[in-house]
Design goal:
Helix content is about 30%, strand content about 25%. The chain has about 230 residues and is of the alpha/beta class. The longest helix has 15 residues. The strands form 3 sheets. It has a 6-stranded mixed beta sheet. Strands 8-9-7-10 form a 4-stranded antiparallel beta sheet. Helix 1 packs across helix 2. It contains 6 helices and 13 strands. The protein is globular, with a radius of gyration of 17 Å. Bound molecules: ribulose-5-phosphate. Ribulose-5-phosphate binds next to helix 2 and helix 4.
Length: about 230
């Protein structure tokens, strides 16, 4: 895996934000995995926290490591969420959803007192948009919704396929934890992320999009030797 040490160091710095008694949103992806593993070690050493997973993958990981979890319906406060990102710009605006978990990630980040993003240096950009923007849509009418989304963004795009490990390809759409499909939109650049977010929210059939604006307050970028915290 690329940038393994950088991801691990970012996750280690995020552990410093966790305090006894917290309810912690657990992100999804390879960087967040390091955080969940380190949190499990802290819990084994006596830290008292409960986790709220942002995906079924993270739920399975956390359960396998003995991290106590709360069902989202039983949560009245999330003190901290630690999650990765596909891109982060200088205003802590994010593209997320590379792991198809953007809907639960956004619900949980938005409900948190603090969202901390953990990233390796390849995720830091001047302007969002080189990473294809994930947009989650309902299966009903998805071809119509896709056209409206691509027109709104003036972007080309594809329905994300479910990768079949046996054939290393896939023609069926990937289905998210919420039972929806993902459009990956090749924007190139997104000069005005709030405007793009507003356009997407106006398209019927769009469940959620991967632009996270005004949610992350702290960004931790790992390097080979440690990490920089940007607040
Ligand atoms: C999942 C996400 C991930 O946080 C994002 O894709 C980053 O993943 P990784 O840490 O593996 O690079 O948004 O939906």
């Amino acid at each position: 895996m690329a940038f393994e040490k950088e991801k691990e160091n970012a996750a280690a710095a995020a552990i410093e934000f966790v305090e006894d008694g917290m309810t912690v949103g657990l992100g999804t992806g390879s960087t967040a995995k390091f955080f969940v593993e380190m949190l499990a070690e802290e819990i084994a050493d006596g830290l008292m926290v409960k986790g709220v997973p942002t995906s079924e993958d993270t739920r399975r990981l956390a359960e396998s490591l003995g991290v106590p979890l709360l069902p989202i319906e039983h949560v009245d406060r999330i003190h901290l969420t630690v999650d990765g990102a596909d891109e982060v710009d200088g205003d802590a605006q994010l593209i997320k959803g590379g792991g198809a978990a953007l809907l639960r990630e956004k619900i949980i980040a938005n409900a948190s007192d603090l969202m901390v993003v953990i990233a390796d240096p390849s995720k830091v950009v001047d302007v969002l948009g080189a990473f294809p923007l994930p947009v989650e849509v309902t299966p009903f009418g998805y071809t119509i919704t896709a056209k409206k989304v691509f027109d709104a963004l003036k972007a080309a795009g594809v329905i994300r396929p479910k990768i079949d490990v046996r054939t290393a390809g896939g023609s069926k759409p990937l289905v998210t934890d919420g039972g929806n499909y993902i459009l990956d939109c090749q924007c190139g650049v997104i000069p005005d992320a709030p405007k793009a977010a507003a356009l997407l929210s106006n398209v019927p059939g769009v469940v959620e999009h991967g632009l996270f604006i005004g949610m992350a307050r702290t960004v931790i970028v790992g390097d080979e030797d440690g990490a920089s915290v940007i607040e």
